[in-house]
Amino acid sequence: MGKPKKHHYVPKAYLRFFAQQNGDKYTLYVFDKVSNQEFISNINDVAEMRNYNKVLSERFIVPPPNGDPLYYEYKYINLIEGEIPQIINNLIATCILSRADKTVLTEESKRKLAKLLIIQLLRTPQSRTHTFELGKPIVDTVMQKIQDQIIQISDTKRRAEFLRVLNEFNYTSQFSTSVHLQSTTDEEKIADYAQRLVSHRSWAIWENRLYPFLPFVTSDHPVVMHNLQNHELGFGSNSIENPATVISMPLTPKYMISLYHKNSLWGYYSQSYEDRCFPISEVKYIHNQNLLQAWQCSRQIYTTPIFSNSLIDFKKVVM
Length: 319
Prior knowledge:
Order of helices and strands: EHEEEEHHHHHHHEEEEEHEHEH
Number of strands: 12
Number of helices: 11
Largest sheet: 5 strands, antiparallel
C-alpha cells in the first residue's frame, strides 16, 4: 500500500455521518461559498490537502519524533479516527433509548466527545493560520533576545558565526506547522484541554426534529466557536476558557452538541438541562446554527445529497 498523500483535516469517519452511501462509496453535497459552486463529491475528495501533515526533516524545522515525515498523519489516525464511529453511534443510541428527563451524557462519554472536539478544532487550516499569526511576534521577541546575548560574546569569530546562523533563520509556515503539529498532537495537552471542557462547561445534545427538511450541516471547520457578546466566530476573541464562547459541533444531520461555560449567564441557565438530549423544531434556531457553520468555515459546507434542496434559501444568505 502506498503512503497516503491526501491528508484529511476533517476525518472521513466523521464525514460519513453526513454522506450518502452507495456500496463502498460515500458522497456529500458540497456548497463552496468562495466559488459559489455546488456539486456532489466523494468524501475522499473534500476537507483534505495533499501532504497536509507531512513534515520533512529540514534545517530550522522541528522534526517528527521518529523521523518519519508522515508521523503526524498516522498519529491523527491513532489518536481519534478509529474511535469516531463508536463515539457518535453510542450517543445516538443513548438518545433514542432514553426518556426526555434522563441524562444521556456520562463523564466518560463527555471525555471522549471532548477529545474529538479538541483534536478537530486544532487540526484545520484555520487553526494553523492562528498558530502562525500568534507565533510571529513571539519568535521576533525571542530572536531579538538571542541576538542581544550573542552581541555580548567577546570572541569575534564565534560571535560572527552565531549571528550568521541566527540571520539564516526565517519564520516560515513550514516551521510554524512543525511546531503546531508537535503541540496539537501532544496527548497530555489534549487530555488537559478535554478535561477543561468536561469540568467547566454545561453540555447539551440537540435533536433536530426537522432534519428531513432542514438538517444540521457540517463544514471544513465543523467545531464552531461563537462569542455571544461580540458575535465573533472562530479563533481570536474565542477560546475554550472564554465564558462568552459557545462551542458546538454537528454530529449528524439530526444531532448537534453544544457546550456553554458554567460561569456565563447561558451556562447558568443551561445547567437545568445539562447532559440531556432535547428535541428542537424551531426553524430559526436550526437555520442560525447552519449559518454559523457556513460563516466560520474556510470555504465548504457539507450535507447529505438528498437534503441539498433544503439549502436553497440558506445559500442566498451565505453569499
